[in-house]
Amino acid sequence: MKQQQEKLGIREYVCIAFLMIGMKGTEDTPSMLFSHVQNAAWMIPLLSGGLFFIPLFLLLKTLSLFEDKNLFEVIQLLLGKYIAFFISFIIFCLNTYAISLDTRTYTNIIRAYYFTTTPILVLYGILMVVCVYAAKKGIQRIGSISYILIFYVALSFFFAFWLSMKDSQFESIFPIWGPGTLELLKAGPLGIGLWGEFFILASLISFMTSFKDFRNGTWIAFGCVVIQLSLATMLFIALFDKGLSVIGYPFHVAIRYISIGEFLPNIETLFFPIWLSAAFIRFAAFLFINALIFGHLFNIKEYQYLIPSLATIYLLIGMIPETPIDVALLKEPLRYVAGPTFAAISIILWLSAWFKGEFKHAKNKKNM
Amino acid sequence: MQKIKKTCNLLLLLSMVFLLSGCWDRAELENKSYVIGLGIDRSKDEGKIKVTMLIANPEVGSVQGGGGSNEKPREIITFDAIDVITAKSTANAVISREISYELLKVIIVSEEFARDKRFLPTLYTSLHDKEIRLDTFLAVCKEKAYEYFQNNRPRLETRPHKYFQYMIEHGIDNGYIADSTLFRFIKTIERGTDLALAMYTTAEREKNPPIKGEDEYIAGQLNAFGELDDTQFIGSAVFRNGVMTQILTGQETRMVNILDDTVDIHDILINMPDPFSERQQQIAARILKTENNTFKMDMKGAKPKITITIPLKFEIMSNPSMVNYVKGGKNRQILKKHIAAHMKTTFESFLKNTQTKLKGSPFPLSRYALKYFATNQEFRDFNWEKSFLEAEITVKPDIEIIDFGKQLMPQKGGSK
Q1: Which chain B residues touch A246 with a CB distance below 8 Å?
Q2: Is the pLDDT of residue B14 over 60?
Q3: In this predicted structure, which of A337-346, B190-199, B258-267 has the lowest mean pLDDT?
Q4: Is A159 exposed, middle or buried (0-12, 13-18, 19+ CB in 10 A)?
Q5: In this predicted complex, what is the ipTM?
Q6: Do residues B38 and B54 lie in contact, with contact meaning Cβ atoms separated by under 8 Å?
Q7: pLDDT category, B407, cuts 50, 70, 90?
Q8: Which of A242, A253, A255 to mutate to probe the B interface, most B CBs <10 Å?
Q9: pLDDT of B379 above 80
Q10: Domain limits of chain B?
Q11: Number of A–B residue contacts, CB under 8 Å
Q12: Class of domain B266-416
């Protein structure tokens, strides 16, 4: 009994994208940005968002030529078998590195604030098992869950931020240019890494109802996430001021600090489950996409069965760094490499399509 | 096939039940001993501190154990330790249950230790404990912290967690003590440009203290007697670069709380001279602060000029000189002007005091200066800590009298 495969609508796609990238505001990203450009950290998402707009625009333009084909098929068509394999492999490696360290970061957060004595391996294992279970259900299911969740996630974030307003001082974001305009521009490439997921999400095109949905969805999610990350960083700066440099995970420190009146202190248990479910979705989608890339690389049709074994590998890689500090240090090169790499690939794709005359080709086709 | 699948799913669900207890972090309420107050003192041994733990008995006052139990509401234990984190296990030599800081309400440091350079590193070490939350309050006590806990015997509110919660909550509402959560304290210390405050308390009443105005006391000076506990919460300790330097009175703390927009105060009752009285009578008023202050600064000149507008609403509660406010519209104007002038002088002389005596602003004034600079480097070059001492500060109280009291028509009537 095989059901007809449902397609991913625009709203599910936007929700997945929002959860995958918007969650960055709740981990160590804000304090990482703060350590680079201090009180001007809130500008980095806006700046790098503006920078990343160009490659993303070119990528969507290129992809629009091959409507039903996903990213990796397009790469293959444009760059030939061997180069395409090489590039796809690089993307897969970067993803592997990213997901391993990210899952480890989340495990660290859970262990640091909520389950302080449970061994890392146990927490990590449970996290991975849940993500594998969700990922194996397929991207359509992940999409529906994220559509259900998004409301609660957004609500809980807003509620947390609203409660923390009382202790915030928005004057802290001044002086407006922070460490100086030059320093800000230097931090641009660092910020591009934040949006790398949009590039990877392009591999979901074949699951979408239409290319138009994909394009519009990407732009909607991109706009939302840029604003959300910038706003979250700004709020954390207003709340913690200079203290943000010594706080690893500002969202969790904030939800442990705030209280609803005098009678409901310690309300982090309200936010934690919602945050956790969002994290599950994020990694489930990530796992699914990685399995998809892997299946494409080595021509494996039934890629769903790869998910558990891939997850195990990620868990093993993620267990390598001994302490949370090592994780932060290992993440640093990724931030410098991933963003520019994805941007470069997008531009290369567009250039090759242009040289090959695919754009003219498409135009002629339209005219006919 | 269908059956196997079902059994597998059921087994999976069953295995999840085991996770619900929280794996290694399973916590038994019965098994825990909750520290409500933590005292830190200087130890005779170099490199050590004297830790005092105030442990609450959860059974007392609860519905289940309230009636029959004869247990004491609290337990106090003092010993020398390297830091408060390892002190948890050392304490188990005496305390039968596992020590936990999860419900910690207040950290009390003796004045002697707060004036020591080792205080700040000790506090930072304590913050590394994952159970200590940033909404814990920091207080400075006049005597040794262990003496404070032992002498503090509340008559009615015997449950220590409730006692400290209410005492501090109402102290902050009244504006008598600084809202010094660890969060605010650490934030100010990290900022480095302003002075940090911590509430001041003592359980030792001074002998024959002088009688002062309603809020001009510091803890220990209020000569209250009767059947009561001697603990007093009023005033605040000022920390400069992480070392305690001065003590502010209740009145000064109130002014700081009015100037600081991030503090939530809402029930300030004060006395001030009655403009219509010849016998130096005082009128009572309630101050409401519903709007934020505005800070205007001029950084261009040799000396920075700072103008602070404080919007305050007044409710006049008493009328000792029996002035008729209803008929005499002029009287209302006189009163308003008088209050404004009174506020202006008190605030300005206090701010002058902060420049000369405290050598820094005890509220986050430097944050309002930030927007006049383009980059962090410029602000650093400006050297706020130094320039603040030379700044010309003007206060503009924006007074609105919203109520002239219950008795509109005075019995005797008329002003003279």
Answers
A1: 190
A2: yes
A3: B258-267
A4: middle
A5: 0.81
A6: yes
A7: low
A8: A242
A9: yes
A10: 30-259, 266-416
A11: 91
A12: alpha beta
In a 13 Å sphere around the CA of A309, the CA atoms on its Cβ side amount to: 7
Q: Which residues of A touch B183 (CB under 8 A)?
A: 167, 257
Q: What is the mean pLDDT of residues A93-102?
A: 90
The residue to which tokens 């600064």 are assigned: B297
What are the tens digits of pLDDT across the range B76-125?
A: 888 888 888 888 888 888 888 888 888 888 999 998 888 888 888 888 88
For chain B, how big is the Rg over CA atoms in Å?
Answer: 26
Q: What is the 3-state secondary structure (H, E, C) of B280-327?
A: CCEEEEEEECCCCCEEEEECCCCCCEEEEEEEEEEEECCCCCCCCCCC
Complete domains list, chain A, with CATH: 2-367 (1.20.1740.10)
pLDDT one-digit tens code per residue, A159-200: 888 888 888 888 888 887 878 788 888 787 778 888 888 888
Rounded Cα distance, B275 and B335, in Å: 7
Q: What pTM value is reported for the model?
A: 0.85
A176·B371 Cβ contact <8 A? yes
Nearest residue of B to residue A181, measured between CA atoms:
B375
CB contact under 8 A, A171 and B371: yes
Q: CA A337 to CA A197: how far, in whole Å?
A: 14
Question: CA of A261: which chain B residue's CA is closest?
Answer: B169
Cβ–Cβ contact B262 with A under 8 A: yes
- CA angle A266/A270/A271 to nearest 5° reads 105
d(CA A68, CA B30): 62
Tell me if chain B has a CB within 8 Å of the CB of A241. Answer: yes
Q: End-to-end CA distance of chain A, in Å? A: 43
d(CA B237, CA B365) in angstroms, rounded, equals: 18
Chain A residues with CB under 8 Å of B161 CB are: none
Angstrom CA distances, A152 to A13, A159, A267, stand at 17, 10, 16
Q: Which of residues 368-387 of B touch A (CB under 8 A)?
A: 368, 370-371, 373-379
Dig out the tokens for A262 from the structure: 């005098």
- Minimal C-alpha gap between A174 and chain B (Å): 5
B110: which strand partners?
B141
Q: Residue A176: its chain B contacts at CB < 8 A?
A: 371, 374
In chain B, the percentage of residues whose pLDDT exceeds 90 is: 2
Q: How confident is the model over B345-367, as pLDDT tens digits?
A: 888 888 888 888 888 888 888 88
A38 neighbourhood in chain B, CB within 8 Å:
376
Query: Is B19 a residue whose pLDDT tops 70?
Result: yes
Q: What length does chain B have?
A: 416
Per-residue pLDDT tens for B43-82?
888 888 889 998 888 777 665 544 556 777 888 888 888 8
Question: pLDDT over 90 for what percent of chain A?
Answer: 9
In this complex, is the C-beta atom of B264 within 8 Å of any C-beta atom belonging to chain A? Answer: yes
